[in-house]
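Long-time lurker. I teach an intro course on protein structure, and each term I like to show students one example going from raw sequence to a predicted 3D structure in token notation. This year I'd like something fresh instead of my usual example. Would anyone be willing to generate the tokens for the chain below so I can use it in lecture? Attribution to the forum is fine with me.
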Amino acid sequence: MSCRNPVGCESGASSAAHDVGGVEASWYRRAARRLHVAALEALSPTRCAGCERPGALICERCLARLPLIDSRRACVRCGAPFGEIVCTECDRDGAGADASPIARCLAMATYEDPLDRIIRVYKDAGELRLAPLLAEMLADTAAHAERVSPARYGGVMSGADALVFVPATADAYARRGYDHMEQIAVELSRRSGAPMLDALAKLGGADQRALDREERRAGIRGAFEVVERVRDMHLLLVDDVRTTGATLDAAAEALRQAGACQVDALVLARVWGR
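-- Reply from a regular --
Happy to contribute to a lecture. Here you go:
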């Protein structure tokens, strides 16, 4: 069949050629990425962040060894294990029922081997490929707690209006080149369907890890500024590690003062028994 509109035929042929060219270019880009990944693996094979065995970012053995916290037995206020009836951690941290602006805190596991190493590899060694895996762990933790402990943790994630992450200091961001909790929060938002709200800015640059309990609480007061609208919102505040609760409490207090009606917390690890 001849074409009655030579201009139209030429345009159609050109468009088809561009489509084919686009497909070929896309194929070459994917192939180049695969070769790049293969070359990196050959030079430096992927190793487990928990034990350095080659093959996976987190191996099955380390996953099985994670010191998980039973949400049915944990302290709902601070996330410590075995605090269902009386929580000595709340008294020691000064985060009792009347003191903390956090309604509920859910922790996935205690901060010990291999989770402590996994978090350090992600946070301080720049293994960004761990972010989706850590986000998946948090999503699974919240879903499991809502299912097995509905009276305690019902709606902790599914009922949240938005996710808010505890931001890194400016110094930490400059040193690492990324905000470790922002990366996790983005992935967690994708998995949970809850929107992520970049609502907090952290003032000052002190690293809290070297401080004791009293110094942490004194140094973190007033350290957060709310930069997004949060009024009347139920928020889920996410962080990597809860030690004394000073950082989470300061962030939650800022959110509550800005009008948030409820702030729950979800963390990967709870320091306990130290």
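Some talking points for your students: Residues 1-18 have pLDDT under 50 and may be disordered. The beta strands are 105-110, 162-165, 200-202, 224-226, 234-242, 262-270.
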